[in-house]
Every structure is written in structure tokens, then in C-alpha cells.
Design goal:
The chain is globular. It has 26 helices and 33 strands. Among the domains are: 164 residues, Immunoglobulin-like (Sandwich), CATH 2.60.40.1730; 133 residues, Neutral Protease Domain 2 (Neutral Protease, domain 2), CATH 1.10.390.10; 94 residues, Immunoglobulin-like (Sandwich); 131 residues, Peptidase M1, alanyl aminopeptidase, C-terminal domain (Zincin-like fold). By secondary structure, it is an alpha+beta fold. α5 packs across α6, α11 packs parallel to α15 and α19 runs parallel beside α21. β25 and β26 form a beta hairpin. The structure holds (3S)-3,7-diaminoheptanoic acid (B3K) and zinc ion. Zinc ion (ZN) binds next to α3.
Length: 876
């Protein structure tokens, strides 16, 4: 497959000004009539052929300005329609296509879900509906007419405002017409037809406009949409208050569907959501589910400005909307909840997902320069690292400079298909700063490594800090240039408080941020009255791998005293990581793992410290995950040893803090009404962390405690915490509890997903057979992406020891599943295959097994572009 290259970008020869669509919905034969008003762009020679994209389309008719085209005037196939000699002036092209939503298993384009019709067009799904210039720089005004049998689809929805509708006399059919006044690219088109329950509300915008809010859900689930509605209203308000951005249509709709390839989609005025990011009730959704709903609702809503009003010129610029919008939803959640806790959770996600991606064969710049299949670039790098890059901009420019840049960006580019260069130019022009070097964050892949050595001179009262940055090679990029790295810092004095200091030489400083720009900086801080412990990269001010020559005492000191909560958490992580990396090596050499008792004491103290936020304490008690430890080890990883080391440390913490943990579990129970707010959720998270650790101490009491916790639970967070503690611990009582859980929630598919997830994660040798058997369970489904991901993708991405079994059987199973799924849904298959991305870091035997399976996938006939691309890049 030939790659698409950023360097080859050219605007289209023709512009599409308006689009009028007419859908006659039918499961097997939906007829789509598209009237496109086209115009040759300046600079295009008359007679230049017009080449439209298609994908698995059947052409029924094609006309220009009302006249049927002669067969020699065009060429048509399932994936292209070419007008050989289009009119010189503006013209209307009518295209009639026939599609079969019921047979659309890729869930791209128009498809069926639970008897309803819905669309997904990003990135290249619109071409599965009609022939089009299906790329984000072709902006048009859409009018959509939908017609269907009334009984089959009482609701007919599309983008924009509803301008007309009614029954079609003498038939059992009805229709609706929607008009979206905002020019948009085809990927933002959406249509929904079907039968739903609707939750309705209103929002008055800052300029006093009344907006109707509607959430469409499957019958009987309308109460479960209340939290999503509340999140939507808070998002709308927040975007007005923080960015001055107001909603721009009379109606905003969200439709929750149960078959969806990803989380949600920001179609103009008509967001379509995976129902797991809409539906929540205390008995069925965990606190994590609630916070994801809040975040995803906000994310899609925020796209209305960052993505829709200003869209991407081409798909290379995906981070222009995604990284920026993730940054915005993270800021929103920080303002709604605890900023420190949110920051820690976001960094955890970044380190466990994006860092490994950036360290392996699938690494790519935040703005890639080439792709074979764009759907494979909706990655942690584009989203999460993309958000970090925007956050660094804010750190470097300050809140006012950042807001000025955002304002200028909206002012200049509203209605445009823009680029990352446009985005950065707005900040440069608004603040007078040169962002040339900063642009490297978008162009260079790989996680920069920042090594710091610190040295205090008591005589001169100076602190010397030597910073050295490097960046490892990544695919297609052997050598890297030094990046602009903002390092937020403080000097923690002997009394635990931040110290004052005099001047700083050797680096540019603004407030508490040093801006590193060179490969090496020798920084001298003068006027430092006593030996401080430097607290560097506060709030994780740059997405780098930091190593500082601080010993255990210094790290323990930061853990106990740092004014920056993020760095307190980081100090615990650093100490635990050292212990775990050392420990897994020791276990490999047949030695015992050594654990510093001071570390255990520190955990104990944090657990007991009532001045600290509950959620924060729970996060500190959560030792680094297996993937994080593996990434730190870097090569020749044996997942069994990593797992054993991690369990040993967790057991040591549990044993050392047993009385404190028992006190927390007994004392933190909440009585009264359930509320999903951050404070109550934090309390539950600490109590459930205590429960999980107590189970590791062992003994009959521990198991009884978990069973009692399960039975007393009045919400899913608590119930699921007990279930996963038992199942992941391999406890004997787990079987009965799993059976009980299934019985209780049999009809509730989002909960049954959790039942599959927890079984797929069990780190025991029996899991592979269990997972294989569960693919034959009546509740399993290869057609529902949530269900498939719950069992199979979770096994591959959330169960390091069993996916990477030494005998290769885990890899073999997942490869089989990839090949199976690829025939049905290539996007889901490609996602699953990317679980192999860290295979080269494994020890020799496992590495060899993984290679065999990757090669088997790569060599299979008839692969989708999605899977072929991931397989090829993993092997390169
Ligand atoms: N923009 C969509 C993602 C589309 C993925 C296409 N493969 C959701 C989001 O990021 O908001
Ligand atoms: Zn997005």
C-alpha cells in the first residue's frame, strides 16, 4: 500500500459549496441521492477530471444539471467515481447510490445498531454513503432529508436545525429535513433514524440564546442519561467562562448506541456516543465510569469549536483538534474535580499508554508525516501527548499569553481547515514569542530523556543543576534535535517548605519555570541558604523521562513534604519503580527481592495521613503497573518476574500497613445517598484500595471481608472492587461471586462487559482457556465491539503475564482473533493487533513467539489496510 505524505498535500481541484442529501432508509437497500453544488477552484484548468472517493458503493445514477451522464463521460467503480470532463462553470452533480446498512459490519458509514440506523464518518466513512471529496478541507453547507417507515424509525435526526418534516400521505412513511448552516467537512456528517427514549433539557447561552438539549437512548434507559445531561450543561457553561466560546445552533443532540467502534463522535449538533459514555446509574456504573462520561461528553462538546468551527486541513493535522480538545476536557475535569488527582490520573495514562507507544515500532510524531491508514493514528500520541504539548504552551506562555493565543486562533481561523503551523502562529503572534523550536514537539517522535545531576555547595550557597536532554531514535527518525522543555521547579528546604533563592544563571527562567532549549544546561542557583531537595518537573510540566541523582532519603523527603502533590506521588512512583526493577532482576537471578523498610513506612504514613485527600492517598498506594515497570526495564522483559516483583511489593505494603488499612476499610464506609462526586468517589477509592491490599495479607478474615464488602455494596464501584479483588487474586470464592454477579446483571450489557473484563484480566495460567471458552458463551458477541473488546482486547492489553505466556499460546490466540475480526471490522482488529507493539522488549523466547504470530498475521491473505499497516510497522 502506498503511503500518503504530508509533503504531497494539495488542495482539491474543485470545491463543493452545498450538499443536499436525500435518504430513503431501508436495512438492505437504502437509496441515497446526493446533489452536490460544485465549482472549479481558481488555478484549476478547465476540463480537469473530478475524482470522487467511494468505498464499497453501488452507483445507481449520475446526472449533471438534471441531465443523465453519457457512459463515456465518467468512470465508476466501488471506490471511485471520475467525471472525465466536468463543466467549466459551477454545476450540480446528482449521484444516486444504494447501500446496505444491515450488511455494514465495519461500522463505518451508515449501519444498523439495535434495530436503529446510525452513521460514523470520521475519518473516511462518508465515502461509504456517497461518492465525495471525502477529506477534511472540503467544507460545505448540508441539507439532509431522511425518509423512513414511521414504525421503524419514529425519530429522524441529522446535523443542524430541523426545518421541515411530517407524514408522507397515503404511505406508512414519514420524513424530516435538517439544515446545518455551518460549512463542515464530510467527516462531521451524521444521520440517525430509529426508536428511542429522549431526555430533554435546555441551556441558555451567555448571549441569552435558548438551546434545546436532547439525549436519545434505548427504551427504558432515560434515567441513566441524567449524569450525561448534567455534564453537558456544565461543559457548555465552562467553555463560555474559560474560553468565551458559545454554542451556535438551536439544538444539541446526543444519541447513545450500543455498537460503536470507539468512544464517541463530535458530529455537528448530533454527537453519536458509545452508550458506555452516556449511561450511568449507581447500581451499574463505577465512579470511573461517571468520570469518563463527564470527560467524554465534555470532549465531544468542546470539539464544536476545536474541530468543527476550526477543522483540520488534512488528517496529518489530527492533533490540531484532538490534542487540543483533550487538553480542554482535562482542564474541565480538573476544574470540576480535584486538579491534583486529575493530573496524576492523566499522567498515569500517558506513561502507561503513550510512553510505550513512543518507545516501540508504532512510535510516530504528534503530527505524523506519513500514513497508510489514518484510522491507525487515533493514538495515545496524537491525543494524550498532543494534549501535553498544548499544556506546555500554556506553561511557557502563562495563562494570559495562552488565552490571547487561543483568542487569536479562533478569530483568525473560524470557518477554516487549519494546520498546526496556523495554531502555533496564533500564539507566536499574540505573545511575540518565537515557537520555532517548540514545533519540534509536533515533528519529533520518541520520549525525550532528561538527566539531571544536582550538587549543593554550602560554602558558596549555590545549587548547581546540570540538565542533559537526549531523545532515542524512532521509526524514520534516527537523530533528534534538542527540544524546548519547560521545567517547573521548587527547592524544598530542610523544614519541608519551598525555599527562597537568589538569581539563576544558565537558563531562561519565568516564575517557577526554567525553559531548557539546549542539549545541556549548567544551571547555577545562588543564594540558597541550606541544602535543598530540588523538586523538578512539578505537575509533570513536560512529557519527558526524568532521572535525577536523588537518593532514597531525598525521594522520601519529597514524598513526605513536597508542596507539589504531583511530585509527592511521583516520588513514591520513583522509589517503587527502583525497587521493582531491581526486584524483578533479583527474582530472575534467583535472589530475594529487597524492599527498604523506610519505603513501607512512608506508604503507611501516607495511608494514615488524614490531612490528605482520600483519592490522592489511594493513588500513592497504587504501585506502578506491570506495563510501566516493563517500560522502565526496557529490554529482555520477563512479565512473570515483573508480576512477581509487583505482588511482592504490594504484599509488603499491605503487611506493613495492615492495621491502618483495616482502619480505613472500617472507617470510610459511606452511609446515606450515593453521589458520584469527586469527594465521595475519592473516599470509595481509598477504601477499596485498602480492601484490595488487605486481601493480599491473606487469611480467611481477608476473604470474608471482601465477600461482606461485595454483599453490602449499594453501588457498582464497591461491588466491582470486591469482585475484581477476588478474581485477580485468584481467590477460591471468586467463582461463586462471578456467578452471582452474572445473575444479578444478566440483562445489563454494560455490566456484563465488566464481567468479561475481570475474567480476561486474571493473571493465572487458566485464563487463556477461560477466555477461549468465554468466546462461546451465549452472552459473547463478535459483532458488538464493546463485548469483543471487554474479553479479547482486555486479555491482550490488560493481562501482561497471560498474553505474553512463555509458550506463545496467548499471542497465538490473539493473532487468531485479529484475523477473524479483520473480516468483519478492521478497525477493531487493528486496535487489537497493536497490543503486540512492545514485543521487541520481551525476553528471547517470548520475543520469538510474538514474531512468529506477527509474521503469520502479516502473511495472511486479504488483510485490511488497517491490520496490514499495524503488522508491517510492528515488524519493521
Ligand atoms: N473524533 C472521534 C474519533 C474518530 C475516530 C475515527 N477512527 C472522537 C473524538 O476524538 O472525539
Ligand atoms: Zn476528539
Amino acid at each position: 500500500i502506498e503511503p500518503v505524505r504530508l509533503a504531497d498535500y494539495r488542495p482539491t481541484h474543485y470545491a463543493i459549496r452545498t450538499v443536499a442529501l436525500d435518504f430513503r432508509l431501508d436495512p438492505e437497500a437504502t437509496e441515497v441521492t446526493a446533489d452536490l453544488r460544485l465549482e472549479r477552484r481558481d488555478g484549476t484548468a478547465p476540463g480537469t477530471p473530478l475524482v470522487l472517493d467511494g468505498d464499497e458503493l453501488e452507483l445507481v445514477a449520475v446526472e449533471i444539471d438534471g441531465a443523465r451522464l453519457k457512459p463515456d463521460a465518467y468512470e465508476a467503480g466501488p471506490s471511485q467515481l471520475t467525471l472525465l470532463d466536468p463543466p467549466a462553470g459551477a454545476f450540480t452533480l446528482r449521484i444516486v447510490t444504494r447501500i446496505a446498512p444491515a450488511l455494514n459490519t465495519k461500522l463505518m458509514g451508515l449501519y444498523r445498531t439495535s434495530g436503529n440506523y446510525c452513521t460514523q464518518c470520521e475519518a473516511e466513512g462518508f465515502r461509504r454513503i456517497t461518492y465525495f471529496l471525502d477529506r477534511p478541507d472540503v467544507l460545505a453547507v448540508y441539507r439532509t432529508r431522511i425518509e423512513a417507515r414511521k414504525a421503524e424509525a419514529p425519530y429522524l435526526l441529522a446535523n443542524g436545525n430541523r426545518i421541515e418534516g411530517g407524514d408522507i400521505p397515503g404511505t406508512d412513511r414519514h420524513y424530516a429535513v435538517w439544515h446545518d448552516p455551518h460549512p463542515k467537512p464530510s467527516y462531521l456528517f451524521a444521520l440517525v433514524g430509529g426508536d428511542f427514549d429522549v431526555l430533554r433539557d435546555r441551556f441558555v447561552t451567555m448571549s441569552g440564546r435558548d438551546v434545546a438539549l436532547e439525549i436519545y437512548v434505548e427504551h427504558g434507559k432515560v434515567e441513566r442519561a441524567a449524569y450525561a445531561m448534567d455534564s453537558l450543561k456544565r461543559s457548555m457553561k465552562w467553555d463560555e467562562e474559560v474560553f468565551g466560546l458559545e454554542y451556535d445552533l438551536d439544538i444539541f443532540m446526543i444519541v447513545a448506541v450500543s455498537d460503536f467502534n470507539m468512544g464517541a463522535m463530535e458530529n455537528k449538533g448530533l454527537n453519536v456516543f458509545n452508550d458506555k459514555y452516556v449511561l450511568a446509574a449507581r447500581e451499574t456504573a463505577t465512579d470511573a465510569d461517571y468520570s469518563h462520561i463527564e470527560g467524554v461528553i465534555a470532549h465531544e462538546y468542546f470539539h464544536n469549536w476545536t474541530g468543527n468551527r476550526i477543522t483540520c486541513r488534512n488528517w496529518f493535522q489530527l492533533c490540531l483538534k484532538e490534542g487540543l480538545t483533550v487538553f480542554r476536557d482535562q482542564e474541565f475535569s480538573s476544574d470540576q474535580r480535584s486538579r491534583a488527582v486529575k493530573r496524576i490520573m492523566d499522567v498515569k495514562l500517558l506513561k502507561s499508554h503513550q510512553f510505550p507507544e513512543d518507545a516501540g515500532p508504532l512510535a510516530h510524531p504528534v503530527r505524523p508525516e506519513t500514513y497508510r491508514e489514518i484510522n491507525n493514528f487515533y493514538t495515545a500520541t496524537v491525543y494524550e501527548k498532543g494534549a501535553e504539548v498544548v499544556r506546555m504552551l500554556k506553561t511557557m506562555l502563562g495563562p494570559d499569553g495562552f488565552r490571547a493565543g487561543m483568542d487569536l486562533y479562533f478569530k483568525r481561523h473560524d470557518g477554516d481547515a487549519a494546520t498546526i503551523e496556523d495554531f502555533l502562529a496564533a500564539f507566536a503572534d499574540a505573545t511575540g514569542r518565537d515557537l520555532t523550536q517548540f514545533m519540534l514537539w509536533y515533528r519529533q517522535a520518541g520520549t525525550p530523556e532528561l538527566a539531571v545531576s544536582t550538587d549543593y555547595d554550602p560554602g558558596a550557597k549555590t545549587l548547581r543543576l546540570t540538565f542533559e536532554q537526549t531523545c532515542p531514535p524512532s521509526p524514520g527518525q534516527a537523530a533528534k534535535e534538542p527540544m524546548a522543555i519547560p521545567v517547573r521547579f521548587g527547592l524544598v528546604g530542610p523544614n519541608g517548605e519551598d525555599m527562597d533563592y537568589g538569581s539563576i544563571e544558565g537558563v531562561a527562567v519565568a516564575g517557577d519555570v526554567m525553559l531548557l532549549t539546549a542539549p545541556r544546561h549548567e544551571v547555577v542557583v545562588s543564594g540558597v541558604g541550606a541544602r535543598p531537595v530540588p523538586s523538578l518537573l512539578r505537575g509533570f510540566s513536560a512529557p519527558v523521562k526524568l532521572s535525577v541523582n536523588l537518593d532514597t532519603d531525598d525521594q522520601l523527603f519529597l514524598l513526605a513534604h513536597d508542596a507539589d502533590p504531583f511530585n509527592r506521588w511521583q516520588a513514591a512512583q520513583t522509589l517503587a519503580t527502583r525497587t521493582l526493577v531491581e526486584g524483578s532482576k533479583a527474582l530472575g537471578d534467583g535472589r530475594a527481592m529487597s524492599i527498604d523498610t523506610r519505603l513501607i513506612d512512608a506508604y503507611r504514613q501516607i495511608a494514615a495521613d488524614d490531612r490528605l485527600d482520600h483519592a490522592f492517598r489511594a493513588l500513592v498506594l497504587g504501585v506502578p503497573g506491570e506495563a510501566d515497570i516493563a517500560r522502565e526495564i526496557g529490554s529482555e522483559v520477563d512479565p512473570d518476574r515483573v508480576y512477581a516483583a509487583r505482588e511482592t511489593l504490594r504484599r509488603a505494603i499491605a503487611t506493613g500497613a495492615e492495621d491502618v488499612l483495616a482502619g480505613l476499610h472500617d472507617g470510610l464506609a459511606l452511609s446515606g445517598a450515593y453521589a458520584p462526586d469527586a469527594a465521595s468517589a475519592g473516599r470509595r477509592s481509598l477504601r477499596n484500595m485498602a480492601l484490595e491490599l488487605l486481601l493480599l495479607v491473606g487469611g480467611p478474615d481477608a476473604e470474608a471481608r471482601v465477600v461482606a464488602h461485595y454483599e453490602a455494596a449499594d453501588n457498582m464501584t464497591d461491588r466491582y472492587a470486591a469482585l475484581s479483588a477476588l478474581v485477580l487474586n485468584g481467590s477460591t470464592a471468586a467463582g461463586a461471586m462471578l456467578a452471582d454477579f452474572y445473575r444479578r446483571f444478566e440483562g445489563d450489557s454494560l455490566v456484563i462487559d465488566k464481567w468479561f473484563v475481570v475474567q480476561a484480566m486474571a493473571p493465572v495460567a487458566a485464563t487463556l482457556d477461560r477466555v477461549r471458552a468465554l468466546t462461546g458463551h451465549p452472552a459473547f458477541s463478535f459483532t458488538n465491539p464493546n463485548r469483543f473488546r471487554a474479553l479479547v482486547t482486555t486479555f491482550a492489553t490488560g493481562n501482561q503475564t497471560q498474553f505474553a505466556r512463555a509458550d506463545g499460546a496467548g499471542f497465538g490466540f490473539v493473532a487468531d482473533m485479529v484475523l477473524d475480526m479483520d473480516k468483519r471490522n478492521p478497525q477493531v482488529a487493528a486496535r487489537l493487533l497493536s497490543a503486540f507493539r512492545s514485543w521487541r522488549a520481551l525476553e528471547g523466547r517470548r520475543r520469538a513467539q510474538a514474531e512468529v504470530e506477527l509474521k503469520r498475521v502479516a502473511a495472511a491473505p486479504g488483510l485490511s489496510r488497517d491490520v496490514a499497516d499495524i503488522a508491517a510497522r510492528c515488524l519493521q
